[in-house]
Design a protein that fits this description.
heterotrimer, A alpha+beta (480), B alpha/beta (397), C alpha+beta (93), A: 480 residues, alpha+beta, Arc Repressor Mutant, subunit A, 3 domains, 9-stranded mixed sheet, 39% helix, elongated, B: 397 residues, Amidase signature (AS) enzymes, 11-stranded mixed sheet, two-stranded antiparallel sheet, 13 strands, globular
Chain lengths: 480, 397, 93
């Protein structure tokens, strides 16, 4: 019998706000000293009252709109109760009855073509703290820095059927949420985490099989391996009666490449949700809704089409740039100054992205101002700065986002000299110093003059039009 | 007899705070072993407001555990009896003349019951007009910071200091709305007595009601007895909401972050269970267990959600009544004193005796106790209720 | 309310009751039985639930960071800390 896998995902994304969802502590806990971004409210002490961070609602709405959801114009917060050391108040404030966004649709593309994945809902909630188990053998250490950092949880319908689709879906979510600048979605940083609900059924059946859930998956590779393992385990159980499948939560051990049933308590599961009396319903009026709608970015595929159809970029260049909103913004800024989309794209692909790669930065970490990049491109294309020096200036712009390329070029002596006397003097000295290369060139080895050319360029600190230099070099060698 | 959980020497005018109100410089215990010696990192908003107006804090008065009991009998420091009758620490301190007023969190009516029995005046303001920032949370959807004093005038004076908008409380109303609640208005012309509340009260409570009614009539008001059976359901609904919210709010006390931790335990579950079981009293444990059951998946719709709907029925009924009457006159208690024997026979008497206090607790409507009885009015009418209280305040002594 | 339900509710709420307390909890539930009867006597099928007694209002704050309390202050009353962490007996995940 042939089987199909049915997968639904619950994806948690940390929202890129400054402060936490209900208190004013910093929401940037990654890498901070333990318990330094904590206050009485987010460490469970009595007496402080939750006041909702407006930007969390802004971002919840944006995420909803990016994922084609319906926005609930009255959205409410509820309490979910359970005891665990990472939850200081023993309840999590989340959205159970009226989440910010419902009924969305995300389009993904895999080797099998395009497919829509339905979004059940997106809700806003607070994150839990972090437990550290490796400081002392008998003790778990508790860090509340991450407690109350705002999250959205994106709950899909069980519309996914393979590891490949899951990967495409997660990449798509990441791309859309980053475009809207609401979340970093970096699994390695824990700013995107994923629960995988999986079941297996005979192909064509409309009845769902027994579902297992794997919680807190934090790399796409691990998710893919876990899906393959679980699918095989379910099929094996169905085909060969190797075990009885039960609805349960399982832990994926990526090192062993196996999933394990998690120890469950008899009473676990009754979270006793109820509306939080301390948080008033958030009513999103037309003005608020419209301002969020107006602030949404162009969707990546809309940009891509515009870049190829209107600006004449190659499919490849447009695809590369639309991988990140930061790249798009830099490109568009540069284009607005140079007026040449090709030049701007060329610099983005061959210079900007290569520096990002060599510095091991993600595309979203780009801080170079697009307009400044445009000015730099103009300096180079107008022959005022040599290309090699242009690259040096760009590198400096990575270090200082406020840097003016023209002023920097001036200050560092990168302005191309039109002093032909100086060039001639330099070339003559170089020819005299390397009679062998001259002889080789004259004997037909055209490449031989490149060594002299390089020396001259170095002597002139790059501030010379390469064509002028080369013409003069050939001219003087022929005369010599 | 221990009235104060903490006390300092200070200049007049001074207030005493009940031990549900967090203070930076004095411990705040909520009447529980769980918070024995607990020091808050911040003061409640009401304290900042009182300090600005020149009031000093005399000390912290003992309270029943998390304020859910009858009148302090569940406090870890023990019930206080005077002449065989249960008394409230905060009220005794006001009676002693050491302070001008007591500031107390009214969770389940204990503040109003004690005011009625001690002959003091107290005001539970409209929900949302006094900040709850810095109060120990129990039943957040209805609990209110209240003022107890010897007279309506003093209540008004202190209430006007603590009333007002606070950005730190997400349920705090606008400054203008808060201030409107203080308007003194005119003496009442139409007063309703809830007939449904007259069964089951003692002769001396009935006498207080009659005296109050006679005072209103003497001042020219019409007093009518009406039937409003819905209001009797406020108690049932409030018991559910209060228990569930309190259960949730006290779940944070687990021996990990602060407060009581059991001396010996094996593993995390035992740390939680022993700390909580050793530190919480019997009544609170009943409330926790009951509250959690009202929220279970099985019960939520038929119990908790039902109580939320009944809350609206009560609010609508009260609003309807206040279209025709300036205020409602009701008992605050069924008797003028609670004996030790009666309390020991029924340790959860607070959950039946709150018949009278629950309508204002669950609806957020204001209530004033004076002359041994309670006056309820529409939202933002506490100023007017205090004006009415001046007509009857002498009757309670 | 029966003993089995009580046992589960104790676990759910991290409580371990003495026999005396169990009796009082069971008594508490019995007395609340009257509450349920009163509620079921009220027709609410057409009534919206009321979580907040306040008028509808949106309360939000600006996304601004502040840090009024130090870790030392926050952990002053902690039963057990180590290297800036709160501590619990080892949890097996």
């Amino acid at each position: 019998m042939r089987y199909e896998t049915v997968i639904g995902l619950e994806v948690h994304c940390e929202l890129a706000t400054n402060s936490k969802i209900f208190c004013s502590c910093s929401a940037h806990s990654y890498g901070a000293e333990p318990n330094t971004h904590v206050c009485p409210a987010c460490s469970g002490m009595p007496g402080m009252l939750p006041v909702v961070n407006k930007r969390v609602v802004d971002f919840g709405m944006k995420a909803g709109l990016m994922l084609n959801c319906h926005i609930n114009r009255t959205t409410t917060f509820d309490k979910k109760s359970y005891y665990y050391p990472d939850l200081p108040a023993a309840y999590q404030t989340t959205q159970w009855f009226a989440p910010v966004a419902v009924n969305g649709l995300v389009e993904i593309e895999t080797s099998k073509g395009k497919k829509g994945v339905r979004i059940k809902q997106i809700h806003m909630e607070e994150d839990a703290g972090k437990l550290v188990h490796d400081i002392r053998e008998d003790t778990t250490h508790v860090d509340f820095n991450r407690t109350s950092v705002p999250l959205i949880e994106i709950v899909s319908q069980p519309d996914l059927s393979s590891a490949e689709e899951v990967e495409a879906y997660l990449e798509r979510l990441k791309n859309l949420l980053r475009f809207a600048k609401v979340a970093e979605c970096e699994m390695a940083h824990g700013t995107m985490r994923c629960d995988v609900n999986l079941s297996v059924r005979p192909e064509g059946s409309d009845k769902l099989g027994v579902r297992t859930e794997m919680k807190n998956m934090n790399s796409i590779e691990a998710i893919k391996r876990a899906i393959e393992y679980e699918t095989a385990r379910h099929i094996d159980a169905l085909e060969n009666n190797t075990e009885v499948l039960v609805q349960e939560t399982r832990r994926w051990d990526d090192i062993k490449g196996k999933s394990y049933a998690m120890r469950t308590k008899e009473t676990a599961g009754d979270y006793r949700y109820f509306p939080d009396p301390n948080v008033m319903p958030v009513v999103i009026d037309d003005e608020w809704f419209d301002s969020i709608k107006a602030s949404l970015p162009e969707f990546p595929e809309v940009k891509l089409a515009r870049y190829t159809d209107e600006l004449g970029l190659s499919e490849y260049d447009a695809e590369q740039i639309t991988k990140s909103i930061a790249l798009c913004e830099c490109f568009e800024g540069a284009y607005s100054v140079t007026g040449s989309a090709k030049d701007a794209a060329n610099w983005m692909i061959s210079e900007v992205m290569s520096i990002l790669n060599s510095r091991q930065m993600t595309y979203d970490m780009l801080t170079v101002d697009g307009k400044a990049l445009g000015e730099l491109i103009k300096l180079v294309s107008e022959g005022k700065v040599g290309r090699a020096n242009g690259k040096k200036i760009l590198s400096a712009m990575f270090d200082d986002a406020t840097l003016s390329p023209a002023a920097y070029a001036e200050a560092n002596g990168y302005i191309v000299s039109n002093d032909t006397g100086l060039i001639e003097k330099t070339v003559k000295a170089a020819i005299d110093a390397d009679p062998k290369a001259v002889a080789d060139y004259k004997a037909g080895k055209e490449k031989a003059i490149m060594a002299i050319f390089g020396k001259c360029m170095k002597e002139l600190r790059g501030n010379c039009d390469p064509k002028v230099l080369k013409d003069m070099l050939i001219d003087l060698i022929n005369k010599a | 007899m221990k009235l104060y959980n903490a006390k300092v020497e200070c200049a007049a005018p001074a207030v005493v705070l009940d031990d549900m109100i967090l203070t930076k410089d004095l411990p705040t215990t909520a009447g529980s072993r769980m918070l024995s010696g607990y020091m808050s990192l911040f003061d409640a908003e009401v304290i900042s407001r009182l300090a600005k107006a020149g009031y000093a804090v005399r000390g912290k008065a003992a309270v029943g555990e998390f304020g859910v009991d009858l009148m302090g009998e569940s406090s870890v420091s023990g019930a206080i009896y005077k002449d065989g009758a249960l008394v409230s620490a905060a009220h005794e301190i006001v009676l002693s003349g050491e302070v001008k007023a007591a500031i107390c969190l009214d969770v389940n009516g204990s503040v109003r019951r004690a005011s009625a029995q001690s002959g003091l005046v107290s005001v539970k303001p409209t929900y949302g007009t006094v900040s709850r920032f810095g109060t120990i949370p129990a039943a957040c959807s209805g609990e209110c910071v209240s003022v107890v004093a010897a007279s309506a005038a003093e209540c008004r004076e202190v209430l006007s200091v603590i009333n007002g908008h606070d950005d730190k409380d997400g349920t705090s109303l606008s400054e203008q709305t808060c201030r409107s609640a203080l308007e003194a208005g005119k003496a009442p012309t139409r007063v309703a007595i809830i007939g449904d509340f007259l069964d089951g009260i003692s002769a001396d409570v009935k006498e207080k009601l009659d005296l109050a009614a006679a005072s209103f009539e003497r001042s020219g008001a019409v007093v009518e007895t009406i039937s409003a059976p819905e209001l009797s359901a406020a108690r049932a609904a409030w018991n559910i909401l209060m228990s569930a919210e309190t259960c949730n709010n006290v779940s944070r006390y687990d021996g990990v972050k602060f407060g009581y931790r059991s001396e010996s335990f094996m593993g995390l579950d035992e740390l939680y269970t022993k700390s909580r079981s050793e530190a919480f009293g019997a009544l609170l444990k009943s409330v926790i267990i009951y509250g959690s059951e009202t929220l279970s998946t099985e019960n939520y719709m038929k119990v908790y959600d039902k109580a939320l709907r009944v809350r609206r029925v009560i609010v609508e009924k009260l609003s309807k009544i206040f279209e025709s009457y300036d205020l409602v006159l009701t008992p605050a208690t069924s008797e003028m004193k609670y004996t030790k024997e009666a309390i020991e026979a029924c340790p959860d008497m607070a959950f039946t005796e709150n018949l009278y206090t629950a309508p204002a607790s669950i609806s957020g409507f204001p209530a004033v106790v004076a002359g041994g009885v309670m006056l309820m009015g529409g939202t933002f009418s506490e100023g007017k209720l205090l004006t009415a209280a001046e007509l009857i305040e002498g009757e309670g002594r | 309310m029966d003993r089995e339900l009580l046992r589960r509710l104790e676990m759910l709420n991290q409580l371990s009751l003495t026999e005396e307390e169990k009796v009082s909890v069971i008594g508490f539930f019995e007395r609340r039985g009257a509450d349920s009867e009163v509620l079921s006597g009220i027709e609410t099928s057409e009534v919206e639930r009321m979580v907040h007694v306040l008028p509808v209002m949106t309360v939000v704050r600006e996304d601004v960071v502040s840090h009024p309390f130090s870790r030392d202050e926050l952990q002053r009353g902690a039963p057990e800390t180590d290297e800036g962490y709160w501590c619990v007996p080892r949890v097996i995940e």
